[in-house]
Amino acid sequence: MGREKMIVSHKILYGSTAMLIAMAAVPAAAQTDAAAPAAEENDGGDGVIVVTAQRREEALQDVPIAVSAFQGEQLQSTGIDGLRQLSQMAPSLVVPEGGSQSVPYIRGVGSRNITPGNESSAAVYIDGVYQTDKTGILLQTFPEVESIQVLRGPQGTLFGRNATSGAILISTKKPSQDFGGMVEGTFGTDDRGARAYITTGLGENLAFSVSGFYRYETPYITNRNPSNGIGKGTGEEETYGFRANLLFESGDFSAQLQGNYINGYTTPIMAMQPAPGSSLSVGEAVSGVDIRNPKRAYYGEVPPEVRYDSWGMSLHLDYDLGDVAISSTSAYTRSGSGVQLDLDLSPAPVFWFDTDLKGRTWQQELLVSSKGSSPFQWLLGGFYINYRDGYTQLDQYVGLPVPTKLQPHAIPQRLLELSALGLGPTSGLAYIDLSTFVRIESVGLFGEASYEFGQGTKITAGLRYTDETATLDEDNGKVTYVPDGTGGVIAIPQTIGDVCTADPLCDGLSTGFSELTYRLVLDHKFSDDFLVYASYNRGFKSGVYNISSLSARATEPETIDAFEVGLKSQLFDRKLTLNLAGYYYKYDNLQVPVVDPATNTQISINAAKATISGLEAEMSFRPDDRLTLNTSFSTYFKSEYDSFPNCEIYRPAGVGLALATNADCSGEDLPVTPNIMASVSANYKLPLGAAGELELAGLLSYTDKFDHATHGFYPAGVDAGGNPYPAGEGRAPVQKALTTLNLSATFRPLKDNFYVTVWGRDLLNQGDRVFRNMQTTTFGYSTALGRGITGGVTIGFKFGS
User: Fold this and answer.
1) Residue 28, CA atoms < 13 Å, CB-side half-sphere
2) d(CA 793, CA 54)
3) Contact between 103 and 114 (Cβ < 8 Å)
4) What keywords were assigned to this record (predicted)?
5) Does the N-terminal peptide bond of residue 294 adopt cis geometry, omega within 30 degrees of 0?
6) Where is 222: in which H helix or E strand?
7) How many CB atoms lie within 10 A of CB 15?
8) 445/463 Cα distance (integer angstroms)
9) Coil/strand/helix, residue 202
10) CA 495 to centroid of chain Cα atoms
């Protein structure tokens, strides 16, 4: 860990310790009378925020877990319209974007290698349904989102597998018997869109709702290569979706049937930085074109595009037996996507690919839990998931000075083009058509119990056993094309079939993983408004097959042991809420992404051990019904590899190429761990008399610089062309520090239900400082700039109750 991070962290630690000592003396002076009314009844007090972090509805301030909870209207007013922007408000949450997918990092724990079957380290749920696919989550901007909860820290007991960093719970509105809804349209400098929601009763026990959205964002990276057929440029995005809900309620029983569909199209924004020790990228070296000038330009040979569609259905059953509640969630989803990218980003036919991915998921969960006010509370549950995920991908190799993989559509034409450039191999061009799927079947049994004894002291213990099997389904083929001497080519097909069984390091076509995870919590309420807790949690992320590699070798599960202490308080008649959390992680067998030199695709390996520790703070101040102030802060005391002797870095290989090589990265910082994250948001409602009301909102957030990938040092050597190179650092460009400002003003007439919002996002114009995509390959570092400052007007109308 760098000296700068240690000095800053120690200062923060001393200040935080002093704050905790001071806060410990507050309860007696600040607590309200035990008979005081609930928070929502206090003048100027905030309403009780209800969360489901412990799989039951509880007040946020009573839950001994670090949780950030956001209401739908709060997110909209501050310019947060998706998971990507949520990190501007939630402490320790970073959502780096990589091509078509973005996956969350929470407290430095995450995974950038989201290949089929390799899921995120943060479990994402929408209305209780676990999301195995992360592309669709990013595209969802449904208008009926009611709340989003970010649970920080391993949730291995109640949420199970693949929740080593935490969980993100997205909840939507239930249908209502009362007729109502909304419709709105947005017209911006760079986008336009519409959203609508309607709900109504269909009888005494039935209610129905339907919603939809459409959104279009214009390109903002200029196309400099007219022959690729893109048109104006890249960065374009178009998405739409629908959701329908049918709710039946009768006495103590309810059933909710949901269906949804989403479709998206985007042209990813990408740029290439030279490999370590090189002044040019491989695309620049081959094409002679400076693809980095200007910054916002695209020179690629083929149009980059990502197409996505998904549909799903779920059934939620709830039965209240008085002292016991039973809940069941059943869900089925199907998804498909196509990705086409030019990874050298130059006009030369060097390296591009076209991939189709398909997936389907069945899942079932059953919960049985106690109710009432007994000091002993319990919960039992079971979870089953069966999903199949995979892709068909076309790989090509070409004889550059260093063997390099290509993946084109028009195979014969590519061979002729490369030969004309003097790059084609003399013995032919080999293509591998990969068709690989992985099927995962997982069963989890879990339980948790808590007992309150004495005056406000409670102990909670939980246990979960997970057993799963991963099965490979491979059907691979190879075709070699050679020149026929007359300007054409000859195709020589060859069946490869399953290559895993021929690899001595492959674990076979089926492998299993099982794990025990557990939780122990001790919390104490000094008063109704002051809670302290200490907890231990163990989480694990499943092992996975590297199906993007020909060998499809399996990666072992990773585990994390987390120790946490926290404080939750409400002061000054509950007008001020202050929550603190400190944590210490021992992280074992980390799954980290590296590039397989045989296929030039990203795979996962296990990376020994790491230690992470830090502090988080959240504060909310609501002196009256007009003004609300929210702040958040997080920092890392330590985030480094204790042992990582086989990390992968890149050294010069000639002609703009880089070659993966091993290094000892022990003691280096983990990626995606900005030393400081902070945000301040404000909302003020200004009465305008008979004219109506003006609501002003703003969000200012800061994220410190961080690395996107592990970095290390390589010794001096000689590249493949015989050229010497000096010792250096194999390090991707650092994500620069970002300060983001969003502002909005909403006018609501007193007697009408329509509203007009004028808004601006990224008003400090930080687009050139954002690396929306950062990945390391043989060809260099692929990056992309953010959109920058945008603004617009949203006009909406609410009707009914």
Assistant:
1) 3
2) 39
3) yes
4) Cell outer membrane, Ion transport, Iron, Iron transport, Membrane, Signal, TonB box, Transmembrane, Transmembrane beta strand, Transport
5) yes
6) strand 221-223
7) 11
8) 8
9) coil
10) 38
The total number of residues written for the chain in this structure: 801
- Cross-strand pairs, 638: 613
Residue 363: helix, strand or coil by DSSP?
Answer: strand
Instruction: Quickly state the pLDDT bin for 332 (edges 50, 70, 90).
Output: very high
- Residue type for position 622: R
Percent of the chain with pLDDT over 90: 45
Domain boundaries, the chain: 3-800
Q: Is the pLDDT of residue 483 over 70?
A: no
151 in Cβ contact with 107 (< 8 Å): no
Element (H, E) at 184: strand 180-188
Say whether pLDDT at 15 is over 80. no
pLDDT reported for residue 23: 41
Residue 756: CB atoms within 10 A of its CB come to 14
CATH of domain 3-800: 2.40.170.20
Quick one: average pLDDT of 657-672? 82
Highest-confidence range of 140-149, 264-273, 715-724, 733-742, by mean pLDDT? 733-742
Of 208, 219, 211, the C-alpha closest to 240 is 211
**Can you read off the two tokens belonging to residue 223?**
């196309």
- 729 forms bridges with which residues in the sheet? 713
**Tokens, residue 127:** 């209305």
Instruction: Give the bridge partners for 440, in sequence order.
Output: 387, 470
Confidence bin at 178 (pLDDT 50/70/90): very high
Binning the chain into helix, strand and coil, the percentages to the nearest 5 are 10, 55, 35
Supply angle C-alpha 56, 57, 59, rounded to 5.
130
Cα dihedral 32, 37, 41, 43, rounded to 10, equals -40
Half-sphere exposure at residue 363, Cβ-oriented, CA atoms within 13 angstroms: 24
CB burial of residue 71 (10 Å; 0-12, 13-18, 19+): middle
Number of Cβ atoms within 10 Å of the Cβ of 62: 16
- Kindly state the average pLDDT of the residues 151-168: 91
H/E element, 567? strand 558-571
The reported pLDDT for the residue numbered 227 is: 83
Spacing of C-alpha 139 from chain mean position: 12
**Which residues does 41 contact at the CB level (< 8 Å), separation at least 6?**
none
